[in-house]
Specification:
Largest sheet: 6 strands, mixed
Helix content: 25-40%
Strand content: 15-25%
Radius of gyration: 20 Å
Shape: globular
Oligomer: single chain
Length: 246
């Protein structure tokens, strides 16, 4: 195509916040596969974590072993966050909200958010965030609202239409990718022919790559006006206190 973009060199991390430990199949992982396939065909390196498979306690400290927990794998997982240009939080819906595992992930990300990069900016500056939601009944937009707000508040950049998802009908029923329900065969698998979902995951994935590529090319954000380190040293740029004070 005439406007084909070279996304090679980008790195993405997708964190599946399912409640199911491996090797139990995850419906959320089936939708993740769509975004992963697009990025890999665009020569983006994709890393994947099923968060519940790791010993990560709740908390706001970089390492919760300092607060009585025997094991905390978060410091090692956080290094994989730092290596990524794109972070996608993928979560199922429970009671209309993102899973408790997704909330724990956001809390642990928050615990590192006061760290700074080489420009003195908060550590997630220059990284791009999005989310992917699956479930039955309503909750995609509500869950995405909470996740995307949290990511941008921590310093991630959010492109247009940075959320996607699939939900089933009200009440108990087949989930995304199911091929059978109550003894009846589902063909194609549930949700696979949803044009809205397929379009949304495509637009989200490309918008994440576009923004990450643009930020990489310009070296992230300039530190003028947003360096935490500079603020602590007294720099105020063109800010003036109300009333004209310095």
């Amino acid at each position: 195509m005439k406007d084909k973009i070279d996304f090679s060199g980008l790195r993405a991390l997708i964190v599946n916040c399912t409640l199911k430990k491996s090797p139990i199949p995850s419906h959320t992982s089936r939708l993740i596969d769509l975004a992963t396939g697009i990025m890999e065909r665009e020569h983006v390196t994709v890393d994947y974590i099923r968060f519940i498979d790791h010993e990560v306690p709740p908390g706001e400290s970089p390492d919760m072993t300092e607060y009585g927990w025997e094991t905390d794998e978060w410091p090692a997982l956080f290094e994989r966050v730092l290596q990524a240009d794109i972070l996608i939080i993928a979560a199922p819906i429970w009671l209309g909200q993102q899973s408790s595992v997704a909330k724990k992930l956001i809390e642990r990300l928050d615990g590192m958010s006061s760290e700074t990069n080489s420009k003195g900016q908060y550590i997630y500056y220059g990284k791009v965030g999005g989310c992917l939601i699956t479930g039955n009944e309503d909750g995609i937009k509500h869950s995405a609202m909470g996740i995307l707000y949290s990511l941008q508040h921590l310093g991630f950049s959010i492109p247009p239409q940075a959320d996607c998802g699939w939900i089933g009908e009200v009440g108990p029923g087949p989930s995304y990718g199911d091929t059978e329900w109550q003894g009846k065969t589902i063909d194609p698998p549930k949700g696979f022919d949803s044009d809205f979902t397929n379009r949304s995951v495509t637009f989200m994935t490309y918008n994440l790559m576009h923004l990450a590529s643009a930020l990489n090319k310009q070296g992230g954000y300039p530190p003028y006006g947003n360096s935490s380190d500079a603020w602590e040293k007294g720099e105020r740029w063109e800010f003036r206190k109300p009333g004209g004070g310095g």
